[in-house]
Amino acid sequence: HVVFDKTGTLTEGRLALVRSVALGDRQIETCMALARALEQGSEHPIAAALVANHNEAGTQSHVAELRNIPGSGVEGVVDGRRMRIGTAAFVSALVGVAPPVAAQTDEALTQIWLGCEKQWLARFELADCLRAEAAEVVRSLQASGKQVLIMSGDGEPAVRDVARRLGIARFEAGLSPEDKHTRVRALQERGAVVAMVGDGVNDAPVLAQAHVSIAMGSGALLSQAQSDIVLLTGRLQGMLEALSIARSTWRVVQQNLAWALAYNIVAVPAAAMGWVTPWMAGAGMGASSLIVVLNALRLLERRTTNVRYQMPSPGAQPVSVAPLTSDI
Asked: In the list 83, 148, 245, 254, which could disulfide-bond 116, CB 3.0-4.6 Å?
């Protein structure tokens, strides 16, 4: 099973604000200022889009008790009023009522809500483009027998649209980091070998849980620190290259084990019967080891500058990413 996060993994992760709708008695410019104040310190692509689309002019609102809830949104006290920005479920828990139904909406857009106690303030709709190589990578994985899934914290309409465009039958939306972790563990308990591909801070727990974890080189440092493989170029083709190298390595391991077994089946009884002198046994063992090493050296033909392989240690600190010629 290959499980993908959506934003920043299957999509470019560079969200653009395409529509802002005021829902309360405040002007949309005021709502944008409140959203920017809450999202100012966040590294999430949604936060970057909202901050980038705000006019720098104007007075900066004071924010206190700022809390980032992974997979849900941000909460804080702005100018004396507690506010939330994030998913509809997260914000509605503070507002106390369900969000108003949008008159017109595009299911490919990601919806972010802003609200305070007992009042909805605004709805922001953001667009993200699919990675150019995403469809090819998904088709290649499916053709090789992998089961491809999407597990995302985004709303169901946006996730469904991406799954439809990429030909992915199984997807889940609106998941918290804990939900993703639980889903992957459930797959593993049923005997599945799971590779997880993610890029954000929210993906770190599920990346640590998966059998094989793959992080985007353009993603958060925490996700890279929790991953076995980092795609340095930030392109998904590196994942196919890594899988190809892994298959080649496994074939070489099997060949070397088969050769060592065959050699010992022949050489040990011959030595025990006295048919092989000590110097012949030493030469034979040296030659056997040399054959194994030379066979393994064939993997150097698979040099890559697109992928880094690492063995993260428990409690590892975020690491920097630099191009490597080979680290297999």
From this structure: 83
Read off the pLDDT of residues 8-67 as tens digits, 9 standing for 90 and up. Answer: 899 887 888 888 899 988 899 889 989 888 888 777 778 888 887 655 544 567 788 888
If we measure between CA atoms, which residue out of 203, 211, 209, 200 comes closest to residue 182? Answer: 209
Rounded-to-integer distance, Cα 105 and Cα 320, Å: 40
The backbone torsions φ and ψ at residue 133, rounded to the nearest 5 degrees and listed phi first, read: -95, 0
Asked if 178 and 185 touch (Cβ cutoff 8 Å), the reply is: no
Instruction: Write out pLDDT tens, residues 73-98.
Output: 899 998 888 999 998 889 999 999 88
234 and 216 in contact (C-beta within 8 Å)? yes
Q: Are 75 and 64 in contact (CB under 8 A)?
A: no
Sheet containing strand 229-231, strands side by side: 170-172, 148-151, 2-4, 195-198, 212-216, 229-231, 307-309
Report whether 183 contacts 192 (CB < 8 A). no
Residue 315 class from Cβ within 10 Å (0-12 exposed, 13-18 middle, 19+ buried)? Answer: exposed
Structure tokens at 72: 């849900």
Distance (Å, rounded) from C-alpha 7 to C-alpha 154?
Answer: 8
In 10 A of CB 51, how many CB atoms? 18
Contacts of 57 (CB under 8 A, 6+ apart): none
Residue 234, phi then psi, degrees to nearest 5:
75, 15
Predicted TM-score (pTM) of this structure: 0.67
- SS3 percent helix, strand, coil of the chain, rounded to 5, is 45, 20, 35
Give residue 322's region: left, alpha or beta (phi > 0; psi -120 to 50).
beta
Identify the burial level of 160 via C-beta atoms within 10 angstroms of its C-beta, where 0-12 means exposed, 13-18 middle and 19 or more buried: middle
Q: Cite the active site residues.
A: 5
As given in the structure block, the two tokens for residue 241 are 């290259």
Long-range residue pairs from 96-105, CB within 8 A, at least 24 positions apart, any chain: 99/23, 99/123, 100/23, 102/21, 105/157
